[in-house]
Amino acid sequence: MQLEPFDWSVVVIGRWNRAILTPAGIGQRLFKVEEGTPLEVLIAIDALGPPLVKHDGLTVVAGSDRLIVQPDVFNRDGVAKACEIAANAIFSLPETPLSAVGVNLKYRCEDYFEPIDNAFTNEIDTRATELELNRIESQLQNSYNFESGRVNVIIAIGEDGKRSLAFNFELQTNKKDDHLTWLATSFDTFASLITKVSEELLQIPKTEIKYELS
């Protein structure tokens, strides 16, 4: 069993103007395409959530409190493109009040994964077993210094039995220049921390985690 990338994203928290960030507005301001360029737009069934706008291997969701950019392929190029699109949003709407920016790189496997399961081995689990309390879902989160911000490392065993390891590289600030600097962070900088936590802290053999997809 091997951990593999899933659900990577770049998120900018702020008070975004959805009247401007319509699908057409996203195309022109974020993707920098000419007016009339076809975009794939997916509408929520309940019509309350913002639409998903897809173009050039990326999906953008512009909510009133956050802008989310997701790459279709989970690799360094996908992250770089997602960060570029998020930066375009900041540049094109400089009046938007911002509060945080995050780069989320997640990994998961379908079943038992010893290094992750070992992280939850403690006296409470032993006593729970003795009391016939069967754990169905667990999560462990630690935060560490990273550059000028922090990285939140979240280890989880879901109710569906899937194991996951998530890295949220987060900067909380209202300064747009700092947001742009964070978005310009190289993938290798993120990858170095991910490798340190995975292989040295959690003792995951490098053959058991696929860091990015080709």
Tags for this entry?
nine-stranded antiparallel β-sheet, 9 strands, 214 residues, alpha+beta, 28% helix, single chain, elongated
Q: How would you summarize the topology of this molecule?
A:
Elements: E1 4-14, H1 23-29, E2 40-42, E3 52-55, E4 58-62, E5 66-71, H2 76-92, E6 98-109, H3 114-118, H4 123-130, E7 138-146, E8 149-157, E9 163-172, H5 176-183, H6 187-201
Helix pairs in contact: 2-5
Largest sheet: 9 strands, antiparallel
Measured by DSSP, the beta-strand proportion falls in 25-35%
Number of separate strands: 9
Would you list the SSEs in sequence order as H and E? EHEEEEHEHHEEEHH
Portion in helices: 25-40%
Class by SSE composition: alpha+beta
Cα Rg:
19 Å
Assembly state here? single chain
**Shape assignment:** elongated
Distance between the termini: 19 Å
How many domains make up the coordinates? Answer: 1
Number of helices: 6
Which spans of ≥5 residues are poorly predicted at pLDDT below 50?
none
Strand neighbour order, sheet with most strands: 2-3-4-5-1-6-9-8-7
Average pLDDT value?
A: 94
Question: What would you say this structure looks like, in words?
Answer:
By secondary structure, the protein is an alpha+beta fold. The chain has one domain (4-208). 28% of the residues lie in helices and 32% in strands. The chain has helices spanning 23-29, 76-92, 114-118, 123-130, 176-183, 187-201; strands at 4-14, 40-42, 52-55, 58-62, 66-71, 98-109, 138-146, 149-157, 163-172. It has a 9-stranded antiparallel beta sheet, covered by helices on one side. Helix 2 packs antiparallel against helix 5. The protein is elongated. The two termini are 19 Å apart.
